[in-house]
Model the fold of this input.
Amino acid sequence: MQHVLLIIAAMVLMASVGESRGQGGVQLKSKAAAWPAAIAPFRIAVVGLVHGHVDGFFGQYKGRTDIQVVGIAEADQALAARYAERYHLDKSLLFTSVDAMLEKALPQGVVVYTNTFDHRTVVETCAKRGVHVMMEKPLAVSNAHAKAMATAAAEGKIQVLVNYETTWYASNRAAFDLVAENALGEVRKIVVHDGHFGPREIGCGEDFLKWLTDPALNGAGALFDFGCYGADLATWILEGQRPMSVFAVTRQIKPDVYPKVDDEATIVVIYPKAQVIIQASWNWPFSRKDMEVYGQHGSVVTVGDKQVRVRKRGEDAEKTLAAKALSGVEADPISYFRAVVMDGLKPSGLSSLETNLVVTEILDAARESARTGKRVVLSP
Done:
Protein backbone atom coordinates (compact mmCIF):
# COMPACT_ATOMS: atom_id res chain seq x y z
CA MET A 1 0.00 0.00 0.00
CA GLN A 2 1.36 3.38 -0.94
CA HIS A 3 1.99 5.41 2.16
CA VAL A 4 -1.26 7.23 2.93
CA LEU A 5 0.41 10.40 4.03
CA LEU A 6 2.24 10.96 0.76
CA ILE A 7 -1.06 11.50 -0.98
CA ILE A 8 -2.80 14.80 -0.53
CA ALA A 9 -6.36 14.60 -1.74
CA ALA A 10 -9.24 16.99 -1.35
CA MET A 11 -12.69 15.70 -0.50
CA VAL A 12 -14.99 16.47 -3.39
CA LEU A 13 -18.54 17.08 -2.38
CA MET A 14 -21.29 17.27 -4.96
CA ALA A 15 -24.27 19.37 -4.12
CA SER A 16 -27.54 17.55 -4.22
CA VAL A 17 -30.86 19.08 -5.10
CA GLY A 18 -34.35 17.93 -5.75
CA GLU A 19 -36.52 15.10 -4.57
CA SER A 20 -38.31 12.48 -6.60
CA ARG A 21 -41.07 10.19 -5.44
CA GLY A 22 -41.39 6.72 -6.85
CA GLN A 23 -43.72 3.88 -6.13
CA GLY A 24 -43.35 2.82 -2.51
CA GLY A 25 -41.02 5.53 -1.27
CA VAL A 26 -38.83 8.58 -1.55
CA GLN A 27 -35.49 8.34 -3.34
CA LEU A 28 -32.48 9.94 -1.71
CA LYS A 29 -29.22 11.22 -3.20
CA SER A 30 -25.91 11.54 -1.39
CA LYS A 31 -23.84 14.69 -1.34
CA ALA A 32 -20.74 12.49 -1.51
CA ALA A 33 -21.31 10.76 -4.83
CA ALA A 34 -23.35 10.73 -8.03
CA TRP A 35 -25.14 7.47 -8.75
CA PRO A 36 -26.30 6.13 -12.14
CA ALA A 37 -30.05 6.16 -12.51
CA ALA A 38 -30.05 2.51 -13.57
CA ILE A 39 -28.58 1.22 -10.30
CA ALA A 40 -30.99 -0.93 -8.29
CA PRO A 41 -32.28 1.12 -5.35
CA PHE A 42 -31.66 -0.07 -1.81
CA ARG A 43 -35.06 -0.31 -0.09
CA ILE A 44 -34.41 1.29 3.25
CA ALA A 45 -36.66 2.18 6.18
CA VAL A 46 -36.24 4.46 9.17
CA VAL A 47 -37.06 3.21 12.66
CA GLY A 48 -37.48 5.94 15.25
CA LEU A 49 -37.25 9.71 14.99
CA VAL A 50 -36.12 10.61 18.52
CA HIS A 51 -32.38 10.61 17.78
CA GLY A 52 -31.09 13.97 16.62
CA HIS A 53 -28.88 12.36 13.96
CA VAL A 54 -31.97 11.48 11.93
CA ASP A 55 -31.93 15.05 10.62
CA GLY A 56 -28.53 14.30 9.16
CA PHE A 57 -29.95 11.27 7.37
CA PHE A 58 -32.80 13.16 5.74
CA GLY A 59 -30.69 16.23 5.10
CA GLN A 60 -27.61 14.52 3.64
CA TYR A 61 -29.21 11.88 1.47
CA LYS A 62 -32.17 13.72 0.05
CA GLY A 63 -32.76 12.75 -3.57
CA ARG A 64 -30.18 9.93 -3.63
CA THR A 65 -31.07 7.63 -6.52
CA ASP A 66 -29.52 4.42 -5.20
CA ILE A 67 -31.69 4.52 -2.08
CA GLN A 68 -35.45 4.37 -1.71
CA VAL A 69 -37.04 5.17 1.63
CA VAL A 70 -40.03 2.86 1.81
CA GLY A 71 -41.22 3.36 5.38
CA ILE A 72 -40.79 5.24 8.64
CA ALA A 73 -41.79 3.67 11.96
CA GLU A 74 -42.42 6.07 14.85
CA ALA A 75 -44.96 5.54 17.63
CA ASP A 76 -45.22 9.28 18.38
CA GLN A 77 -47.58 10.38 15.60
CA ALA A 78 -47.13 14.09 16.34
CA LEU A 79 -43.35 13.73 16.02
CA ALA A 80 -43.74 11.75 12.79
CA ALA A 81 -46.04 14.43 11.38
CA ARG A 82 -43.46 17.13 12.15
CA TYR A 83 -40.76 15.23 10.26
CA ALA A 84 -43.09 14.57 7.35
CA GLU A 85 -43.74 18.30 7.08
CA ARG A 86 -40.10 19.30 7.60
CA TYR A 87 -38.76 17.03 4.86
CA HIS A 88 -41.84 16.92 2.61
CA LEU A 89 -42.35 13.19 3.11
CA ASP A 90 -45.37 11.32 1.80
CA LYS A 91 -47.53 10.47 4.81
CA SER A 92 -48.16 7.02 3.36
CA LEU A 93 -44.60 6.22 4.50
CA LEU A 94 -45.52 6.65 8.18
CA PHE A 95 -46.23 3.68 10.45
CA THR A 96 -46.76 3.54 14.20
CA SER A 97 -45.06 0.15 14.71
CA VAL A 98 -41.97 -1.58 13.37
CA ASP A 99 -43.87 -4.81 12.68
CA ALA A 100 -46.51 -3.07 10.57
CA MET A 101 -43.87 -1.15 8.64
CA LEU A 102 -41.81 -4.26 7.91
CA GLU A 103 -44.88 -6.18 6.75
CA LYS A 104 -46.20 -3.49 4.42
CA ALA A 105 -43.06 -1.66 3.24
CA LEU A 106 -40.76 -4.70 2.80
CA PRO A 107 -37.43 -2.92 3.32
CA GLN A 108 -34.09 -4.64 2.77
CA GLY A 109 -32.50 -2.70 5.62
CA VAL A 110 -33.44 -0.28 8.38
CA VAL A 111 -31.56 2.64 9.89
CA VAL A 112 -32.34 3.08 13.57
CA TYR A 113 -32.83 6.43 15.32
CA THR A 114 -34.44 5.26 18.55
CA ASN A 115 -33.04 5.51 22.06
CA THR A 116 -30.21 3.04 22.72
CA PHE A 117 -32.31 0.81 24.99
CA ASP A 118 -34.68 0.04 22.10
CA HIS A 119 -31.89 -1.18 19.79
CA ARG A 120 -32.34 -4.73 21.08
CA THR A 121 -36.06 -4.87 20.31
CA VAL A 122 -35.56 -3.42 16.85
CA VAL A 123 -32.82 -5.94 15.97
CA GLU A 124 -34.84 -8.86 17.30
CA THR A 125 -37.92 -7.75 15.36
CA CYS A 126 -35.98 -7.21 12.13
CA ALA A 127 -34.06 -10.47 12.49
CA LYS A 128 -37.31 -12.47 12.44
CA ARG A 129 -37.98 -11.05 8.97
CA GLY A 130 -34.41 -11.19 7.68
CA VAL A 131 -34.04 -7.39 7.53
CA HIS A 132 -30.56 -5.94 8.08
CA VAL A 133 -29.96 -3.16 10.62
CA MET A 134 -27.70 -0.13 10.98
CA MET A 135 -28.08 1.85 14.19
CA GLU A 136 -26.55 5.00 15.59
CA LYS A 137 -23.81 4.47 18.15
CA PRO A 138 -23.46 2.86 20.62
CA LEU A 139 -24.66 -0.69 20.02
CA ALA A 140 -26.33 -1.32 23.36
CA VAL A 141 -26.95 -0.18 26.93
CA SER A 142 -25.47 -3.39 28.37
CA ASN A 143 -23.63 -6.62 27.62
CA ALA A 144 -26.89 -8.52 28.03
CA HIS A 145 -28.54 -6.47 25.29
CA ALA A 146 -25.50 -6.75 23.03
CA LYS A 147 -25.33 -10.53 23.34
CA ALA A 148 -29.08 -10.83 22.69
CA MET A 149 -28.67 -8.82 19.49
CA ALA A 150 -25.75 -10.98 18.38
CA THR A 151 -27.86 -14.11 18.94
CA ALA A 152 -30.83 -12.66 17.04
CA ALA A 153 -28.59 -11.57 14.16
CA ALA A 154 -27.06 -15.04 13.86
CA GLU A 155 -30.44 -16.78 13.98
CA GLY A 156 -31.99 -14.37 11.48
CA LYS A 157 -28.89 -14.37 9.27
CA ILE A 158 -28.80 -10.57 9.19
CA GLN A 159 -26.01 -8.02 9.43
CA VAL A 160 -26.01 -5.54 12.33
CA LEU A 161 -23.88 -2.42 11.87
CA VAL A 162 -23.19 0.52 14.16
CA ASN A 163 -22.69 4.00 12.72
CA TYR A 164 -20.16 6.39 14.27
CA GLU A 165 -19.42 9.80 12.78
CA THR A 166 -15.70 9.15 13.26
CA THR A 167 -15.80 6.04 11.06
CA TRP A 168 -15.93 8.35 8.05
CA TYR A 169 -12.99 10.55 9.09
CA ALA A 170 -10.08 10.31 6.66
CA SER A 171 -7.77 11.27 9.53
CA ASN A 172 -8.70 8.17 11.53
CA ARG A 173 -8.11 5.97 8.49
CA ALA A 174 -4.69 7.58 8.03
CA ALA A 175 -3.80 6.85 11.66
CA PHE A 176 -4.99 3.26 11.28
CA ASP A 177 -2.94 2.79 8.12
CA LEU A 178 0.21 4.09 9.79
CA VAL A 179 -0.23 1.52 12.55
CA ALA A 180 -1.01 -1.25 10.05
CA GLU A 181 2.12 -0.38 8.06
CA ASN A 182 4.19 -0.53 11.27
CA ALA A 183 5.29 3.06 10.61
CA LEU A 184 5.04 3.87 14.34
CA GLY A 185 6.13 0.56 15.81
CA GLU A 186 3.94 -1.48 18.15
CA VAL A 187 1.20 0.64 19.76
CA ARG A 188 1.81 1.48 23.40
CA LYS A 189 -0.76 4.20 24.18
CA ILE A 190 -3.95 5.60 22.63
CA VAL A 191 -5.64 8.74 23.97
CA VAL A 192 -9.06 9.74 22.64
CA HIS A 193 -10.92 12.97 23.41
CA ASP A 194 -14.61 13.21 22.50
CA GLY A 195 -17.54 15.44 23.32
CA HIS A 196 -18.68 19.04 23.45
CA PHE A 197 -19.95 21.53 26.03
CA GLY A 198 -23.22 19.65 26.64
CA PRO A 199 -26.18 18.36 24.62
CA ARG A 200 -28.58 20.89 26.10
CA GLU A 201 -26.05 23.68 25.70
CA ILE A 202 -25.49 22.95 21.99
CA GLY A 203 -29.25 22.93 21.34
CA CYS A 204 -30.27 19.27 21.08
CA GLY A 205 -34.04 18.91 20.76
CA GLU A 206 -36.23 17.85 23.66
CA ASP A 207 -37.12 14.51 22.04
CA PHE A 208 -33.40 13.71 21.92
CA LEU A 209 -32.59 15.06 25.39
CA LYS A 210 -35.44 13.17 27.00
CA TRP A 211 -33.71 9.81 26.52
CA LEU A 212 -30.08 10.97 26.18
CA THR A 213 -30.15 12.11 29.81
CA ASP A 214 -31.95 8.98 31.08
CA PRO A 215 -29.51 6.31 32.35
CA ALA A 216 -31.92 3.47 31.52
CA LEU A 217 -32.45 4.56 27.91
CA ASN A 218 -28.89 5.76 27.16
CA GLY A 219 -26.88 3.47 29.42
CA ALA A 220 -25.24 6.45 31.13
CA GLY A 221 -24.50 10.08 30.24
CA ALA A 222 -21.26 11.23 28.62
CA LEU A 223 -19.71 7.87 29.56
CA PHE A 224 -21.77 6.06 26.91
CA ASP A 225 -22.57 8.99 24.61
CA PHE A 226 -18.92 9.80 23.92
CA GLY A 227 -16.96 7.03 25.60
CA CYS A 228 -18.13 4.68 22.85
CA TYR A 229 -16.10 6.56 20.22
CA GLY A 230 -12.81 5.90 21.97
CA ALA A 231 -13.65 2.28 22.71
CA ASP A 232 -14.56 1.75 19.05
CA LEU A 233 -11.40 3.37 17.68
CA ALA A 234 -9.13 1.57 20.14
CA THR A 235 -10.68 -1.83 19.41
CA TRP A 236 -10.21 -1.20 15.68
CA ILE A 237 -6.62 -0.05 15.93
CA LEU A 238 -5.72 -2.90 18.29
CA GLU A 239 -7.21 -5.42 15.84
CA GLY A 240 -10.19 -6.48 17.94
CA GLN A 241 -8.29 -7.20 21.15
CA ARG A 242 -10.34 -7.54 24.32
CA PRO A 243 -8.77 -5.63 27.20
CA MET A 244 -7.54 -7.14 30.43
CA SER A 245 -9.16 -4.56 32.71
CA VAL A 246 -11.12 -1.30 32.78
CA PHE A 247 -11.11 1.51 35.33
CA ALA A 248 -13.35 4.57 35.08
CA VAL A 249 -14.17 7.74 36.96
CA THR A 250 -17.31 9.78 36.28
CA ARG A 251 -18.52 13.13 37.61
CA GLN A 252 -21.63 15.27 37.66
CA ILE A 253 -20.12 18.69 37.18
CA LYS A 254 -23.51 20.11 36.15
CA PRO A 255 -26.07 18.24 38.32
CA ASP A 256 -28.50 21.11 37.90
CA VAL A 257 -28.53 20.46 34.13
CA TYR A 258 -28.03 16.67 34.10
CA PRO A 259 -29.34 15.37 37.45
CA LYS A 260 -29.66 11.71 36.42
CA VAL A 261 -26.44 11.02 34.51
CA ASP A 262 -22.72 11.72 34.45
CA ASP A 263 -21.48 14.59 32.29
CA GLU A 264 -17.76 13.83 32.68
CA ALA A 265 -15.98 10.47 32.29
CA THR A 266 -12.42 9.16 32.05
CA ILE A 267 -11.86 5.50 31.14
CA VAL A 268 -8.53 3.68 31.40
CA VAL A 269 -8.42 0.44 29.43
CA ILE A 270 -5.49 -1.93 29.94
CA TYR A 271 -4.18 -4.39 27.34
CA PRO A 272 -1.17 -6.75 27.57
CA LYS A 273 1.14 -4.25 25.85
CA ALA A 274 -0.90 -1.05 25.57
CA GLN A 275 -2.98 1.43 27.52
CA VAL A 276 -5.98 3.38 26.24
CA ILE A 277 -7.28 6.55 27.89
CA ILE A 278 -10.73 7.74 26.83
CA GLN A 279 -11.85 11.21 27.88
CA ALA A 280 -15.58 11.68 27.28
CA SER A 281 -17.14 14.94 28.31
CA TRP A 282 -20.10 17.27 28.10
CA ASN A 283 -17.82 19.97 29.53
CA TRP A 284 -15.28 20.69 26.80
CA PRO A 285 -15.06 24.39 25.86
CA PHE A 286 -15.60 23.32 22.23
CA SER A 287 -16.66 20.25 20.25
CA ARG A 288 -13.90 17.72 19.65
CA LYS A 289 -13.31 14.23 18.29
CA ASP A 290 -9.56 13.65 18.14
CA MET A 291 -7.16 10.82 18.83
CA GLU A 292 -3.48 10.36 19.69
CA VAL A 293 -1.71 7.08 18.93
CA TYR A 294 1.78 6.47 20.33
CA GLY A 295 3.95 3.62 19.06
CA GLN A 296 7.42 2.42 20.04
CA HIS A 297 9.12 4.98 17.80
CA GLY A 298 6.50 7.39 16.48
CA SER A 299 3.13 9.02 17.00
CA VAL A 300 0.14 10.25 15.02
CA VAL A 301 -2.45 12.79 16.18
CA THR A 302 -5.65 13.35 14.24
CA VAL A 303 -6.63 16.94 13.47
CA GLY A 304 -10.30 17.22 12.56
CA ASP A 305 -11.45 14.77 9.91
CA LYS A 306 -8.89 15.53 7.18
CA GLN A 307 -5.44 16.01 8.72
CA VAL A 308 -2.91 14.27 10.94
CA ARG A 309 0.24 15.32 12.77
CA VAL A 310 3.06 12.78 12.64
CA ARG A 311 6.33 12.66 14.54
CA LYS A 312 9.05 10.00 14.57
CA ARG A 313 11.74 9.40 17.16
CA GLY A 314 14.70 11.69 16.45
CA GLU A 315 12.59 14.37 14.76
CA ASP A 316 12.39 17.81 16.38
CA ALA A 317 8.75 18.52 15.56
CA GLU A 318 5.52 17.10 14.22
CA LYS A 319 4.62 17.31 10.54
CA THR A 320 1.05 18.19 9.64
CA LEU A 321 -0.15 16.23 6.63
CA ALA A 322 -3.40 15.78 4.74
CA ALA A 323 -5.06 12.38 4.89
CA LYS A 324 -6.19 10.60 1.75
CA ALA A 325 -9.90 11.20 1.23
CA LEU A 326 -12.22 8.23 1.69
CA SER A 327 -14.10 7.16 -1.40
CA GLY A 328 -16.68 4.71 -2.71
CA VAL A 329 -18.46 2.59 -0.14
CA GLU A 330 -15.97 3.76 2.53
CA ALA A 331 -17.05 7.38 2.19
CA ASP A 332 -20.36 7.38 4.08
CA PRO A 333 -22.52 5.08 6.22
CA ILE A 334 -25.38 4.58 3.76
CA SER A 335 -23.06 3.60 0.92
CA TYR A 336 -21.39 1.13 3.26
CA PHE A 337 -24.71 -0.28 4.48
CA ARG A 338 -25.93 -0.66 0.92
CA ALA A 339 -22.76 -2.49 -0.11
CA VAL A 340 -23.12 -4.89 2.83
CA VAL A 341 -26.76 -5.70 2.09
CA MET A 342 -26.84 -5.63 -1.71
CA ASP A 343 -23.27 -6.44 -2.74
CA GLY A 344 -22.31 -8.89 -0.02
CA LEU A 345 -19.53 -6.77 1.49
CA LYS A 346 -18.34 -8.41 4.71
CA PRO A 347 -18.55 -5.88 7.56
CA SER A 348 -15.32 -5.22 9.41
CA GLY A 349 -13.65 -2.63 11.57
CA LEU A 350 -15.42 0.27 13.20
CA SER A 351 -18.98 -0.56 12.08
CA SER A 352 -18.95 -4.32 12.61
CA LEU A 353 -20.94 -6.17 15.22
CA GLU A 354 -17.81 -8.01 16.38
CA THR A 355 -15.99 -4.76 17.15
CA ASN A 356 -19.00 -3.30 18.90
CA LEU A 357 -19.51 -6.32 21.14
CA VAL A 358 -16.06 -5.47 22.55
CA VAL A 359 -17.02 -1.79 22.74
CA THR A 360 -20.09 -2.67 24.80
CA GLU A 361 -17.98 -4.85 27.09
CA ILE A 362 -15.65 -1.90 27.73
CA LEU A 363 -18.53 0.51 28.40
CA ASP A 364 -20.36 -1.95 30.66
CA ALA A 365 -17.18 -2.49 32.68
CA ALA A 366 -16.51 1.27 32.82
CA ARG A 367 -19.98 1.93 34.22
CA GLU A 368 -19.47 -0.76 36.88
CA SER A 369 -16.03 0.59 37.73
CA ALA A 370 -17.37 4.12 38.12
CA ARG A 371 -20.15 2.80 40.36
CA THR A 372 -17.89 0.80 42.66
CA GLY A 373 -14.67 2.80 42.42
CA LYS A 374 -12.80 -0.41 41.59
CA ARG A 375 -10.96 -1.75 38.57
CA VAL A 376 -13.00 -4.32 36.64
CA VAL A 377 -11.02 -7.32 35.42
CA LEU A 378 -12.47 -8.90 32.30
CA SER A 379 -12.67 -12.67 32.05
CA PRO A 380 -10.29 -14.28 29.52
